Amino acid sequence: MNQEISLVATLPATPRGARAARSLTVSQLVEHRLPFADAAQVVAELAANAVTHGRVPGRGFRLRLRTGPGPTLRIEVSDTRAEAGPPCEPAVPGPAAECGRGLLLVSALASRWGVERGPVPLKTVWAEMDFGGPLSPGRGSHVPVGRVSVTHDTKGNNRR
Questions:
Q1: Is the separation of the CB atoms in 8 and 78 below 8 Å?
Q2: DSSP letter (8 states) at residue 53
Q3: How many CA atoms lie less than 13 Å away from 86 in the CB half-sphere?
Q4: Which of 50, 57, 76, 156 has the fewest Cβ atoms within 10 Å of its own Cβ atom?
């Protein structure tokens, strides 16, 4: 890895803000020649949760990306609803459920993840991804073509 990544952005707690978080992540990782697909998915899930479950009118959410030794990418998404936190272990939704798979994806893609509360009223959901292993050919290591998009249904909810 050539340089350390350190990004902090406060974004509106809207679907547009969640898309911007994903786009910022892809841009940072492409710029540093790191694989981006899995990290972009983790950011999309955490940002969608902040927008859906952590939204407080008039307040945004914060995205923080930073690299550490290994190299390890730490992703943090903070919102201002500390009382509305994710479960420690994600539950498997039923086959007909239209939501509830986000933290399962985060758990599958990240090396580690968790929740930190405070200072009041903040809640931060974080995930760490290790880039030390070999990359799968073509798995999020090429420059994306066009814009990264997230499809929304008519109610403005993320569809995955």
A1: no
A2: H
A3: 29
A4: 57
21-34 residue pLDDT tens: 999 999 999 988 88
Transcribe the chain into DSSP letters: --S--EEEEEE-SSHHHHHHHHHHHHHHHHHTT---HHHHHHHHHHHHHHHHHS--TT--EEEEEEEETTTEEEEEEEES-TTS---SSPPPPPTT-SS--HHHHHHHHSSEEEEEE-STT-EEEEEEEE--SPPPTTSS-SPPPS-----B-TTS-B--
Query: How is residue 134 written in tokens?
Result: 């070999």
Alpha carbon distance 8, 152 (integer Å)? 25
Q: What is the C-alpha to C-alpha distance for residues 56 and 138, in angstroms, rounded to an integer? A: 39
Is the per-residue pLDDT at 87 higher than 70?
A: no
pTM reported for the whole predicted model: 0.74
pLDDT at 157 over 50: no
Q: How far is the C-alpha of 105 from the C-alpha of 83, rounded, in Å?
A: 23
> 91 near 59, Cβ under 8 Å?
no
pLDDT of residue 84: 61
pLDDT tens for each residue of 7-54: 999 999 999 999 999 999 999 999 888 889 999 999 999 999 999 877
